[in-house]
Amino acid sequence: MSTIPMMLSNVPNAIEARSLQTFPVAPNFAFSVISNPPENTVHIGGTVPVVIAVAIDALTAERRTAVTLLKARRSWADRESRQFYVEAAVEQGLAYQIRVNRERREMSQRELGKIVGTRQSAISRMEDPDYGSQSIPKLLKVAHAFDCALLVKLVPFSMLAVEAEHLSEDDLYAAGYDEEVQENELWLAKLS
Questions:
Q1: 3-state secondary structure 6-19
Q2: How wide is the angle at C-alpha 27 spanned by C-alphas 25 and 69, nearest 5°?
Q3: Phi, psi dihedral angles at 37 (to 5 degrees)
Q4: Which of 15, 101, 102, 174 could form a disulfide bond with 148, CB atoms 3.0-4.6 angstroms apart?
């Protein structure tokens, strides 16, 4: 049984600022107790301060979405079609993502090539969705140039179906570490 700490929307800093214990109630529900609650916490019986947050587990909702998207990909029932899609997703997806990240950083292919230690023509090939010959060492150099992470892993087709729904330039952009930290700090400041 999985439990995920949940909280009421009027207690935004409860998990970060206080000691939280989560007790499983049912497969998709949890009961959370905060030992040092904020003033606007619900008090049961006037003595035990608790934040009760019974909610459908977020993982269940994500799984339901993934299963629905996978079922919608009827052509994937054919093994050859699935394999073709995977190859195209890797080859074309990486090419588009490299281009989007380079352009968002206002870098030329020549500038990226210099940082990566290759020629402009090699960067052009990496950004060509028909090239299809990316190497992990070269991709790591590109990730280092963009100051972002590279994640390569085997996944179930349901995860691929979810990823296939997120192909906009905003989705393909991977913020650099410093940019991400700054955005997260601004986001946390807005919650306070």
A1: CCCCCCCCHHHHCC
A2: 145
A3: -75, 160
A4: 174
Instruction: Name the residue among 5, 23, 27, 2 with its Cα closest to residue 14.
Output: 5
Which among 7, 16, 155 is positioned nearest to 89, based on CA atoms?
155
Facing residues of 191 across strands? none
Question: How far is residue 49's CA from residue 167's CA, in Å, rounded to a whole number?
Answer: 45
Query: How far, rounded to the nearest angstrom, does the alpha carbon of residue 173 sit from its chain's CA centroid?
Result: 11
Q: In tens digits, what is the pLDDT along the chain, a chain of 192 residues?
A: 333 344 333 333 434 434 444 444 444 444 444 455 455 444 444 444 444 443 445 667 787 888 899 999 999 999 999 999 999 999 999 999 999 999 999 999 999 999 999 999 999 999 999 987 889 999 999 999 999 999 999 999 999 999 999 999 999 999 999 999 999 999 888 887
Per DSSP, 51 falls in state: B
Sorted by sequence, the CB contacts under 8 Å of residue 115 that are 6+ apart come out as: 145
Joined together, the tokens standing for residue 185 give 């700090």
**Sign for the pseudo-dihedral over CA of 25, 28, 33, 37:** negative
Burial class (CB in 10 A: 0-12, 13-18, 19+), 47: exposed
